Amino acid sequence: MEQQRDGSCNVEKFDIKLKTKPKDGVILQLHHTVRSSNGESRRIRISTGIFDDAHEKLACADNVGNIFMLDFSDLKFWKFSSVGPCTALHFAPNKPGALVAANSKKYDVNFLDTETGQMFLTLTGHSAPVKHISFSNNKLNNLLTASHVEAILWELTNYTKYFTLNTYLGAQIQQIMFSPGGDYLVACFQNDTVQIWKHESMKSVKQIIPNDLKHMKNIAFTMNGRAMAMAGLTPTLILFSMDTWKALKSIDLMKYDISGAQQIAFVPQVFDGGANKILAILGSDCTLRLLNLESLTIIHSISPESSGIRKFVVSPTGKYFLCILKLGEVNIYNSSYVMDKAQEGDTEQNQQSMSFPCMSSYKSVAPDSTKAEVEQKMRVCMDSARLRRILMQYGEYPDKFRAVIWRSLLDTPRNKVAYSALIDKGIHPVYKDIEKQFTIHSSVTLKNLKRLLSCLAHWSPLFGVMKFLPGFVFPFVKVLQKDPLLLFECVGTVLLNHCQLWFEYAPFPPISILAMIENVLGEHDPQLLQHYCDVGVTSQTYALKILETAFSEVLTCSEWLILWDHILSNEPAFILMATVSYNVVQKNAIKKLKTYEQLENFFHMQNPIDKKTFLKKAYVLLNDTPDEIHPRRFFNSFVGLDKGDCYQQFTGYPKATICMKLANKEKQKASKTEKLTLRDLTTKTQEKEISKRLLDIPPLENKSLHSGDESDECCISKKCGHHQKRKTTNHNKGELNVKKIVRDELVESIMYPATFHLMHKEDKTQSRATKKDKTLCKHSSKRKLKKADINGDKLEKEIANLFRNGSNSDSDA
Fold it and tell me: In which domain of life is the source organism classified (predicted)?
């Protein structure tokens, strides 16, 4: 140990000793252990590290803010304290002896002296912890720093930022860096998209959206920058050419028992010309594997006995690499020692033996084994307890095997005969026009949805009257529509088990279920429940809306799949705990909503949520809820569908209520049809015919129905000019009477056509006989009729005198 003094700063340097012939390639192990005043030891975890090959140095930082410097050329190490815990480190290539450290408290980027720990420059501007630091190789003064929400390009000549990239929720940054040549800026986003910009102009030149790669986590470049590797939580690795902008190959990682990749990096080798052939892959099982991309074989695997690997870092030239373990220790490897050890043994055979425990069961099956034996081996491998352990370790099931795993968890019987009997019944009348209720663009999805709903309605009459059912089963259709039998049996099993007591008061809301949810919410978050009461929101809004859509309206597709992985892997009460968990996790946003309409809309849209916190809270509620209010008290244990030629009846609903509702529907339908066909239809037809005939009557018919000729009326009007107004009124009344007469005749002709024709014939005969006796005008004929009937009437005499005087005056004129 020696002590070095630099001004007022004292830095102690300690000797280190590297292993010359390491058995497993580890040349040095690091850990930070401190002793408290009472003598107890405490391990402080190391979180990140970075190599500087040009000066043979390594920098590591722990969780409390200490930075350790290792000098492999002088075999010395020393420690100094930074301004706080570091989230990222990088050596500055343009400033020898400078270390760039990102602070997790103020989100600053600090430049430190590697010898003294003195801070000489600070860059501010981030709103989240910086996770990525990268320098451009063609412009050494260009620095890139990035958090998960933003990336900033800095110009170190004048210490200013000249470009900022902001992201949105759902497309946050997973990784971002300069390409090895410095020509491009490449970013990997959370929405499984890789974006490439030209460094000079910062214009987008390429966007890569791989179809086979989901949940992308990491990208890596070869040393010459001509190839890029992409990997994620799905067992697929894609190699992409930066020269032709095309995919070179896609590798199925399941061949090497890698279910997903947490991190990847190329390991440069001597004399490979920068076209690196060895790719280091940190799998989801926390094992580091070295894959030869030429022979497509695993040449070596690293899995420390003490702890799994959380992160690894490869030096720029590939001389060293380190593994940060989950316990916080660091193993430093010499790459040449590791490669030499890989060549000594048959590593390919060793890798095959490192498969899942169930793989040995498959290999032990003889070629002539019966189908029953193979199925038995699969049941052992797909044991629910074993699957649940895998789920708790990785958080979700792989997309490629999700359908098979769900089938195993739900213990579906594959009753082809029983399912065919339901299919033969055809489309149920209730769901014949389901496309009018929902907008579904895919005809295939619509067909599968109709078929599923029809089978459910044929299986039980309940499912023909529940309005929420199409929205509940739709996400299952999207996931399992390639296997209709599995789709029906999965949904049927979910309705049997995870939807217990949902239909207890059908078609009314499930009061018991909503009461359970309210009790659990009141137990774990009474303030949130009080907020709901103050606004006037009940569990039908904050719970039933979520359950009736199976969480599909409030979660994204990937979040929905992960949630149902956990729901199907747990007891039936878990879905209710997930509902409460969603409310509790979102309570900060919920408490800012002050009206009923705002809260109702909140539970009909996707809201940002941390799925890990959401699931963790659901398990806490499941385990910490008191027994007296726990929903499991009221639920039966899991029951699968019966295997055989028919399915068991669904009995979890009040049959009398459903039958009564169905009977009322049929009765209303029959009465409505009878009313239209017998009475309403006849009345409407008569009215249409009458209106039509009234419009078709010519003017001459109207004249013939009057008591006098038009010429006579004109003559009288000339003689009686001072009585024009009264005559006009009488004329209008006459027209109304005519219309009434015509209407009555038309009604009679429609209702009794034969009788009407006889009466009409008699009327014509009488009109011919009396036509000669009619006077000059209609009014005079009426006056004569009245005189014959009413003798000595003064009013009639006055009218006669009035007409007589009028005639004399006209003649005199």
Answer: Eukaryota
In a domain, 652, yes or no: no
Residue 247 lies in a domain: yes
| Strand blocks (E) in 575-688 | none
Residue 608 and residue 707 in one domain: no
Measuring CA to CA, which residue among 300, 324, 304, 313 is closest to residue 265? Answer: 313
Walk across the sheet containing 330-334 and list its strands.
26-30, 330-334, 320-325, 309-314
Name the more confident of 688 and 785: 688
- β-pairing, 142-146 vs 216-221, is unpaired
* DSSP letter (8 states) at residue 185: E
Q: Is residue 668 part of a domain?
A: no
Contacts of 14 (CB under 8 A, 6+ apart): 1, 76, 77, 78
When the pLDDT of each residue in the chain is averaged and rounded to a whole number, the result is: 78
Q: Answer whether residue 111 is part of any domain.
A: yes
Q: Do the Cβ atoms of 269 and 277 come closer than 8 Å?
A: yes
CA–CA dist 406, 411 (Å, integer): 8
- The 3-class secondary structure across 303-370, one letter per residue, is CCCCCCEEEEEECCCCCEEEEEECCCCEEEEEHHHHHHHHHHCCHHHHHHHCCCCCHHHHHCCCCCCC
Task: Yes or no: say if 460 and 650 are a contact pair by the CB < 8 Å rule.
Answer: yes
Q: Measuring CA to CA, which residue among 99, 168, 101, 153 is closest to residue 129?
A: 101
User: Count of H helices and E strands in the chain?
Assistant: 27, 32
Which two three-digit tokens encode residue 48?
Answer: 């990140």
735 and 622 in a common domain: no
CATH of residue 312's domain is: 2.130.10.10
- 3-class DSSP assignment, residue 121: strand
**Where does a domain end: 352, 370, 396?**
352
Whichever domain contains 104, its CATH number is 2.40.10.480
How much of the chain is in helix, strand and coil states, percent to nearest 5?
45, 20, 35
Instruction: List pLDDT tens digits, range 743-798.
Output: 565 555 544 444 444 444 444 444 444 444 444 344 444 444 444 444 445 555 65
Secondary structure (3-state) at 112: strand
Residue 288 neighbours by CB under 8 Å, 6+ apart: 280, 281, 282, 301, 302, 303, 309, 312, 323
3-state secondary structure of 791: coil
Question: Do 711 and 583 belong together in one domain?
Answer: no
Q: Are residues 527 and 602 in the same domain?
A: yes
Confidence band (pLDDT; 50, 70, 90) for 736?
low
How many angstroms separate the CA atoms of 806 and 797, rounded?
Answer: 14
Q: How long a stretch of residues is the chain?
A: 813
What CATH number does the domain containing 631 carry? Answer: 1.10.472.80
Structural domain of residue 544, as residue ranges?
A: 502-635
**Do 249 and 324 lie in a common domain?**
yes
Residues 631 and 701 in one domain: no
Distance CA 62, CA 785 (A): 124
**What total number of domains does the chain contain?**
4
> 720 and 613: one domain?
no
Asked if the bond preceding 507 is cis, omega within 30° of 0, the reply is: yes
From 756, 771, 786, the end of a domain falls on 771
